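Open question from group meeting: does this chain pack into something compact, or does most of it stay loose? Before anyone orders reagents, we agreed to write out a predicted structure and look at it together. Recording both the input and the output here so the notebook holds the full record.
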Amino acid sequence: MTEQFSQQFASYVESVDWKQTSTQELETAKLAILDFLGTALAGIGEGPNQALWDRISQTSGDEASIIGKPEKTTSWLAALMNGTLGHCLDYDDTAEFGHASVIIVPALLASAERGGCKGSKLLEGYIAAYEVGFALSSVTKRGDDQHHGMHSTGIFGPITSATAAGKVMGLDSDALRRAWGVAVSQSAGVTGNFGTHTKPLHAGLASQGGVLAAELASSGFTSNPNAFDAPLGFMYSVVAPGYYADIDFNKSLEVLGKDHISSTLGFKKYPCGYIAQGAIETAIKLKEEAGINADNIESVEVRVPVLEDYFQVDPTGDVAGKFSYKFTVVCALVDGMVTKWTFSDESFGRKELTPLFQRFSVKKDEDSERLGVLVVRAGGKEYSRPIEPAPGHGRNPMSPEELQNKFLLNAEPVLDNTRSREIVEWVMNLETQDSLVPLMNLLSRRK
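Structure tokens returned:
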């Protein structure tokens, strides 16, 4: 079973052809790449970006570009920097195996720029990597991999980025399986670091790890080519004790390559943890409909059927508020919006928010509505509303126009409008592009 399992994954990756992929999958993949580029541009100047650049800028290399910088560096460090940059604001998309594009796209860009390839090959790399990540994560429930406190982006990220880099580099099945063997030894990232600069580093390290794995494998570096399901292999090591015996590896083979991007990828409307997106949207609409203002709010309660430990943190400033129902929902009710500024020092320092934090509660209620309930008492009245699906999810999608506008807004502080619109045009016609150079020149402000 082991050799067949790994080989079937490798054979699938080799077979991915953009011409045989549905239009919907291709369009979603292009929007995902564009969305990542926007979140990376928006992350320029944030704490994690600044600290990491201080180190990388002291190295030499001329292989790949860093978004927003005219300088180049090595392919590994470009993937590390761009992956971290894209996750700084937690504004990037999510999937069953973690944050998808922020680990896949930096690896694609670094490998493609280093080796040279057409835009269509980037699309194939994205599709292959997403499907491999989805298939592997499908054999265990999303929450199970966090029983150890591990972050799914860090667990599956090196594998998916190695897939992306390997596809772009043209690795054969033997080399790709060895790349995965290197990649699985780099799976890491603990949820205890949520709300700190280290969470975005999870994405950067995962993307860097995949590029490193693919490049080492291409030079003959050895590893266990059956590391996915081998005894003491990847799944054995990352799945919580008590769940491993129930894993059905055949399930991952059944779903592999079945067009999951457009149906499972979740874009973000707000720059914070995905879990709060629906509650924020619900709070904003409730404020508009009921005329709620900060002065007449008596209490706020969020009841959800599943309450993750890492999403109960108090808003302590910096980036910790991005993982707090309390902070995000209160800001939505007070401001009628949640933006990048919401998580600034100025916003955190508002004294008028403190009384509302004290009137806020989050409860686990397995009998609540499917996604939970928001209950606000204001002006002597009680308003109760089911929490909506997160905007950007398949059940509540954002349109291509909305996602392109999100990119333009994120790019606005860094790039001029003409350059930004050229990037949109380039990415949305990715399959026709002969070289990555024009895009990287635009993103790096070298043109």
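Observations to bring back to the group:
The two ends are 52 Å apart (CA to CA).
The chain has two domains: 2-268+397-443, 274-386.
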